[in-house]
Design brief:
The chain is built from 5 helices and 7 strands. By secondary structure, the chain is α/β, with parallel strands linked by helices. The chain has 2 domains: about 10-40; about 55-179, Glutaredoxin. The protein has a 5-stranded mixed beta sheet, with helices on one face. The longest helix has 23 residues, at about 20-40.
Length: about 180
């Protein structure tokens, strides 16, 4: 073997076949994404803890409580009317609601709003077809939400199963709801 020539499995990555390099790149990307997601959700209620109870007014004037949601999985998204990422994610929540139908609850909680008309305008402009609850600072503190949008996934028994912070795709919402 000549000097400087490498042999076997200890060759540098750049000398490996393309599929190996892509596999390593993909693995690194997945690890970075998992680390970022873990960091973003570090302050939220942890998996297995009971979700803080609430009873909130809807935009239509009704009322929804955490207790009334028992028996089905829940996707509960906290958002603010001024949040541009929330606007982008709104259609994903609508798609999730259509896809799961009556097998799960998909609803959102508007927080950090000035007046109800601001929330109504958001719902109208984004063509929201899922229930919108009117939250307040106390609920936001109880769930420890400080970034929008934040989606918490609850078990049929009302326990937190997982959380997502920031924009979440339709597939990401569906995957987190059912797993």
């Amino acid at each position: 073997m000549r000097t400087g020539e490498r042999k076997g499995r200890w060759r540098p990555l750049r000398e490996r076949p393309t599929w190996v390099r892509w596999g390593v790149d993909g693995l690194v990307l997945l690890l970075v994404a998992a680390a970022v997601m873990t960091w973003q959700t570090r302050r939220l209620p942890s998996a297995g803890t009971p979700a803080p109870a609430f009873s909130l007014r809807t935009l239509e004037g009704g009322s929804v409580s955490l207790e009334s949601l028992r028996g089905k999985p829940v996707a509960l998204t906290f958002w603010a009317p001024w949040c541009t990422v929330c606007k982008a994610e709104s259609s994903n929540l609508s798609a999730l609601k259509r896809r799961v139908g009556g097998r799960a609850h998909v609803l959102s909680v508007a927080v950090a709003w000035e007046d109800v008309e601001e929330v109504r305008r958001f719902a109208r402009e984004q063509e929201v077809d899922y229930p919108v609850l009117l939250g307040d600072d106390a609920l936001q503190r109880a769930y420890r939400v400080d970034t929008f949008p934040t989606t918490l996934f609850l078990s049929p028994e009302g326990r937190v199963t997982r959380a997502a912070v920031g924009y979440t795709t339709q597939l990401g919402l569906l995957w987190r709801l059912w797993l």
